[in-house]
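Pasting as-is:
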Amino acid sequence: MCLVFVCDEEERVLGRQPAPGACPYCGGMVQAVDVETQWRFCFLPFCFKTKRRYYCTMCTRKLEVV
């Protein structure tokens, strides 16, 4: 007997806007990106999360908020 579980994660960008401050690595402008994450199990959505992530526009690094 073989069981196959299909899990999937889908991310969608909801919006972008400039954020205050500068990148500590290169000094570039920081951009705030709102991302909605949807987890699916066997094609049925069971978890939605919305997060704000910060990225540098020059070196494209993901920045952590401290």
